[in-house]
Amino acid sequence: MNPTLFPRMGEVGVNWAGASFTVILGGIAVVGFALPSIVRTARLRIAEGLKLERSESASRDRKWGGLDTLVALEAALAFAMVTATLLMLQTVSRMQSFDLGFNASGMLTARLPFSFSDYPTEEQLHTHYRRLLASLAAQPGVSQVGASTALPLSGIRETIAVSVAKDDPTHAPYAQVSAGYFAAMQIPILRGREFTGADDGRSPPVAIVDAAFAKSHFGDDPIGKSITAGSAPGTRRAIVGVVGNVRQFGPRSAHEPMVYLPLLQRTRWSSFMAIRGRSAATSSLSNSFRRGISTTDRNQVVTDVRTMEERLGARLRRPRFSLILFAWFGFVALGLGIVGVYSVTSYATRRRSKDYGVQLALGAPPGRLARSVVIRGVRPVLVGLLGGLAIAVLFGRLLESQLFGVTPLDPISFAAGLLILTLAGVAGSFLPARRATQVDPLQAIRTE
């Protein structure tokens, strides 16, 4: 499924020792569960069997046996697994729909390291940046292009010393971005403006902050006010805009107040390109990106080419992996529970077939017989659900670190789990109940 997700996952596999152990354990289980019935059948005498059958006939519906206990245990475990699956399903769904502060659909990204030998001066590098961005924006199917030194979901976190007024400097996450970056990422401009091509080394130093930074340090509109960013002298920058908060590392990471600086006001020999297409499909953007790169520099090295949705998907790999595992275990446990209910109910129905035939011959409604069989089958399931609640609570607590946007005791998941297991019990009892109503009364009377 994904051997690189967990350490040494590639070493996990089926070997002869594990397979042999499973086969031997299965054989022991079959023999162990069958042995008591074999011994009891071998010792049973016909006369005693007839007497036992008649004595048990009146109490079969009321008796709680070992088979009912097994069904209750199956139902309890199945309920816990189904509930865990529903919790993980909500986690993945809410992470996918979580507002990261930008639009991840329809965007292709890549990292470009620039050679110092090709662009030895700051002026040459900035000229190449302008040509590259213009070339990419002119390609067919491209609507917006931007560059950033710390792209969201790229895993890169850079900090810079920032001070406001006379406060002591603190380190805040920052990124250098080009003109058009916020439009390409569809990060909303809440106040002021975004960077333009004129924000370069010849213009006054400026900065853009996000809403969290503005609220934390200014409390009101920070446009026109200034901050000191960086340790070099003369780094006081006027704030020209406020943008929305962006979750740089995905939905699970806490947001940190962030500062944005113009890409052309500080020299950087590596950055990410973000290209937004005119539609949500990104299949054609790859060709447009290659053409735009080759137009400006045929020898340009390109790394980490991925869509933004692929970057987001990488952040969801672990919860998706857990969801798939729990879904399979829950499916198997639910199947075992249904089979258990069917087996026990079918066994009890066959033992009482003569009783049902006599009742039908005396005018008992078939619907009442069917209801009694279903109640007989659902009863151990309902008992098992009571114990399954405690197991499900424990499972939820163990999964708490993996959950997102949902509590371990989510009432919707628990209610859905109860409904699924109850319906499973009814489904397992349906065929035996139908068989009970089709018993031939005359045949049953002749047998008696």
Topology:
Blueprint: H1 16-43, H2 46-57, H3 66-96, E1 107-113, H4 122-137, E2 142-148, E3 159-164, E4 170-177, H5 181-185, E5 189-192, E6 206-210, H6 211-217, E7 226-229, E8 236-243, E9 259-262, E10 270-277, H7 285-296, E11 303-307, H8 308-315, H9 317-351, H10 353-361, H11 366-398, H12 411-436, H13 441-447
Parallel strand pairs: 4-9, 6-8
Antiparallel strand pairs: 1-10, 1-11, 2-10, 3-4, 3-7, 5-8, 6-9, 7-8
Describe what you observe in this structure:
With 448 residues, the chain is of the alpha+beta class. It has two domains: 59-98 and 317-447, no CATH class; 115-299, no CATH class. Helices cover 51% and strands 15% of the residues. The chain has 13 helices and eleven strands. It has a six-stranded mixed beta barrel with strand order 3-4-9-6-8-7. It has a four-stranded antiparallel β-sheet with strand order 2-10-1-11. β7 (226-229) and β8 (236-243) form a beta hairpin. The longest helix is centred in the last third of the chain and has 35 residues, at 317-351. The chain is elongated. The two termini are 59 Å apart. The mean pLDDT is 84.
